Each structure stands twice: as structure tokens, then as C-alpha cells.
UniProtKB/TrEMBL annotation:
The lineage of its organism: Eukaryota, Metazoa, Chordata, Craniata, Vertebrata. Residues 152-247, 252-344 form the Link domain. GO terms for molecular function: hyaluronic acid binding. Essential for the proper localization of brevican (BCAN), mainly as a perineuronal nets (PNNs)-type deposition in the brainstem and cerebellum thereby playing a key role in the formation and structural organization of PNNs. Contributes to the formation and transmission of inhibitory GABAergic synapses between Purkinje cells and deep cerebellar nuclei neurons. This is Hyaluronan and proteoglycan link protein 4. The keyword Glycoprotein applies.
Length: 361
């Protein structure tokens, strides 16, 4: 496998996410039988971590046959084909949100028949498919909305080496590095953008896959087609692979800390702390590269003890012809000396970073 990070093209600065509006819904909501009819947006709605999004859903029913207070609106998240998580329920003036959605969700209530759900401060875990169900005493109907996030995929393995993570350990590894296990759709999108990675990794559905843009003998034969190659669903406890993690935009900034000399890992931890920051996690460095266009030809410690650096504009002395986050592996933490990448949350004194953060080397 290449150790030079993946080759997805660096994204332009974020455009403001385009929220789907109720007027994009199918117009024909009339039903002669008087039954409840639900319509949701075709396609998907897109936001980023920390954003606010509306999941569009409208319903029609025979007003003369039903009292508005008899209508129950229920939103659930589809975890897998047989598993659902309650998100939000409303009946009349009674509204209730569940679990991590408490305090972040409300109905849009834009006129009669609007069951659209507003989610604020969107998290990585909010990604996925949602079902809007409208029920009266006798009838019910449902519609589906897909919530997508803008972000970046990063392949990951820990210090132990490649193919050392079962499914549950892969989930934990992504969380520790500011990500979640990626979905197939997210990996496929990254492949369309040019991602090429030899090592197979877990995805959130329990499958093991890897994206190939440049077929070669060391990656499953040169004469095989490009695409996302699929090992199928593997045993979650017994089999070990790498992980494909997904992260979205940062509530803060990653920067290369200017220091008088190179640092060991313990010194790097202290240096970021002294600067009012933390050592950046792998996912934070990838997000800074992809979204904030961080470009630095300087090898530095990141939180998991690996040495990496982000390249937006490739040049020969900076490790190759493709943009990406270069990975130099896991050196001895005590005796090997490098720079360090720090992460500082938004609103925590960015002015102090003016001297230490530059976009190009």
C-alpha cells in the first residue's frame, strides 16, 4: 500500500450547504380515499458537522375526516434494515425528542401538512437515512430522507500495524481520531474523486472494501478493473482489517507549531498545551487538509503517535505528485524528533497563531 496518504483532490472552500426545501417535493399530494399521504424530498439533503439542516416531509389528509390533534408525526433513523432509532415524535402540541437528538431538533411547522424536521448542530453520527411517518387513527404512510455530510475519508491503521482491527476496534479507532466508520456511499464518492488505497478496511455496515483507481499487481492484479473492491461482510469479532474513517469540517483550526527545535512526542504534547491547544488528531489533520487547504511540507507529530504532513499543492521535494496527507509511520516516541501539528478550537485565541500558521511552506 502507498504510505503517502490518499489521492482525493483537495476540495474548494465550502459553498453554503444547499438545503432541500418543501417546494422540491412531489406536487401530487391528493388522495381521493382520505388516507394520509406522505411526501419527502427525492435524493438527499447535505450539510456538514456543526450545521443546521431541514429534513423535508409533507403530508396530506382529509381535513373533514380527521382532527389535527389525532395526527401523530414520528421521525426515526434507519440503523440497518431491521433496526430503527427514535428521533422525534409529535402529537398535537406534545413534542418529544430522543437520545442525542434532545435539544437539537424541532418541527419546521411551515403551514398545514408540514412534518419537516430541523436538526441543529449536526454531528458525524447524524449521517444516514431517516423515516418520516404520519399516522391518524386508521391510516399511516411513511417517506424516507437521506442526510449526507460534506467531509473527507481517511484510511487508518494503528501503531500495531496493518490488518490489526476487528470491526469494533475499527469503530473505536475512528472515534479516537475524530471520525466515524465511513459508509459505502462515502467511500464510493472518494473513489470517484480519485482515492486509491491498496489495503482493505471496515465500513460502517460491516463490509470490508477498498478503492482502486490505478490497478497494479500489488493491489489485486494489474488487469482488474478500477472501482471499489468488495470483500463482502466479514466476521466482526474474528477478522482483522484496517478502517476507512469519515470526518467533516472542524470547529477550529489545525496548524503547524513553530518551535526552536524538533520535539519528542511528550515534548510535542506539552508544546501544543502551552500554546492553548492539543496535538491534532488524524481526522482533524485530514479535515484541515481537505477543507481548510492546509499545505505544509513539514513532518510533524499527530495525536496517535504517527508522523504526517498535509500537501494540497504537490511538489517534488514534498513526497510525490498527488495531493494528500503523507504518512511517515510510527517512530519511537521518546527519541525521534519532529515538529508537531496542533488543533485549537474556534474562539480560543486564533490571533496568537498568526506567526505559526502559514498556508504554504
Amino acid at each position: 500500500a502507498s504510505s503517502m496518504g490518499h489521492t482525493a483532490q483537495a476540495a474548494p472552500c465550502w459553498a453554503e450547504p444547499q438545503n432541500s426545501h418543501p417546494q422540491t417535493l412531489t406536487e401530487d399530494l391528493k388522495d381521493e380515499s382520505g388516507a394520509v399521504v406522505v411526501q419527502t424530498a427525492p435524493g438527499k439533503v447535505v450539510t456538514h458537522r456543526g450545521g443546521t439542516i431541514t429534513l423535508p416531509c409533507r403530508y396530506h389528509y382529509d381535513v373533514s375526516a380527521h382532527d389535527l390533534d389525532e395526527i401523530r408525526l414520528k421521525w426515526t433513523k434507519v440503523v440497518d434494515p431491521m433496526s430503527f432509532v427514535d428521533v422525534f415524535v409529535a402529537m398535537g402540541k406534545e413534542h418529544r425528542a430522543f437520545g442525542s437528538y434532545r435539544g437539537r431538533t424541532a418541527l419546521q411547522e411551515d403551514g398545514a401538512g408540514d412534518a419537516s424536521l430541523v436538526i441543529r448542530n449536526v454531528t458525524l453520527q447524524d449521517y444516514g437515512r431517516y423515516e418520516c411517518e404520519v399516522t391518524n387513527e386508521l391510516e399511516d404512510d411513511t417517506g424516507m430522507v437521506k442526510l449526507d455530510l460534506e467531509g473527507v475519508i481517511f484510511p487508518y491503521h494503528p501503531r500495531l500495524g496493518r490488518y490489526t482491527l476487528n470491526f469494533h476496534e475499527a469503530q473505536e479507532a475512528c472515534l479516537e481520531q475524530d471520525g466515524i466508520l465511513a459508509s459505502y456511499d462515502q467511500l464510493h464518492t472518494a473513489w470517484l474523486e480519485g482515492m486509491d488505497w491498496c489495503n482493505a478496511g471496515w465500513l460502517e455496515d460491516g463490509s470490508v472494501q477498498y478503492p482502486i483507481s490505478r490497478p497494479r499487481d500489488e493491489c489485486g492484479r494489474k488487469d482488474t478493473p478500477v472501482g471499489v473492491r468488495n470483500y463482502g461482510y466479514r466476521h466482526k469479532d474474528d477478522e482483522q482489517y484496517d478502517a476507512f474513517c469519515f470526518t467533516s469540517n472542524l470547529n477550529g483550526r489545525v496548524y503547524f507549531l513553530k518551535t526552536y527545535r524538533k520535539l519528542s512526542y511528550p515534548e510535542a504534547l506539552q508544546a501544543c498545551k502551552k500554546n492553548g491547544a492539543q496535538v491534532a488528531k488524524v481526522g482533524q489533520l485530514y479535515a484541515a487538509w481537505k477543507i481548510q487547504l492546509l499545505d505544509k511540507c513539514e513532518a510533524g507529530w499527530v495525536e496517535d503517535g504517527s508522523i504526517r504532513y498535509p500537501i494540497v499543492n504537490p511538489r517534488s521535494r514534498c513526497g510525490g505528485r498527488e495531493p494528500g496527507v503523507r504518512n511517515l509511520g510510527f517512530p519511537d516516541k521518546k527519541y525521534k524528533l519532529f515538529g508537531v501539528y496542533c488543533y485549537k478550537k474556534a474562539g480560543e485565541g486564533f490571533n496568537s497563531l498568526a506567526l505559526s500558521y502559514k498556508r504554504t511552506s
